[in-house]
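Exercise 7. Given the encoded structure of a 133-residue chain, write a plausible sequence.
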């Protein structure tokens, strides 16, 4: 009887340890990961339109945008980047210039968008306002 009880206790303890580990692991998975985001940045080649460090290829005030010349994005607020990328991805933000970026990012998952936004947010410590802020 005593033996059975201790086996039960060990089993219970490892079950608890296991569930704690999985909880910690899944919350880590959901957090934005800038290192993974850098891979997304390179794979999609955001620099093609937003320049090497996200300083933007469209210049001037107002910005001289075209499908291949994106606005500056380095220094934008991370949550703003997530929101705008999601809107371009799902088509709710649609201008004459968004279609090429939409096609480029069409296979990104919400997690990829979170990650690349975290990466973009590290590109500059000088804060800027977005086009829609
Ligand atoms: C083919 C060119 C192109 C590529 C590649 C591209 N973009 Fe864009 N992006 C644009 C253009 C053009 C706009 C402006 C859209 C508009 O007219 O509203 C834009 C807008 C944005 C905005 C919104 C800026 C604001 O101030 O509201 C963000 C954020 C952004 N892009 C991030 C990215 C990221 C991150 C990547 C790579 C995963 C990427 N873009 C790839 C062309 C591109």
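Solution.
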């Amino acid at each position: 009887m005593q033996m059975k009880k201790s086996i039960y206790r060990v089993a219970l303890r490892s079950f608890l340890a296991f569930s704690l580990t999985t909880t910690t692991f899944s919350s880590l998975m959901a957090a934005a990961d800038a290192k993974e985001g850098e891979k997304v940045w390179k794979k999609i080649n955001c620099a093609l339109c937003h320049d090497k460090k996200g300083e933007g290829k469209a210049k001037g005030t107002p910005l001289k945008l075209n499908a291949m010349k994106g606005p500056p994005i380095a220094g934008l607020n991370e949550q703003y980047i997530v929101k705008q990328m999601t809107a371009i991805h799902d088509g709710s933000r649609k201008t004459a210039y968004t279609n090429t970026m939409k096609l480029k990012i069409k296979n990104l998952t919400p997690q990829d968008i979170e990650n690349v936004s975290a990466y973009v947010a590290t590109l500059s410590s000088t804060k800027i306002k977005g086009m829609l802020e």
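Remark. The CA atoms of residues 9 and 118 lie 43 Å apart. Students should compare their own answers with the one above.
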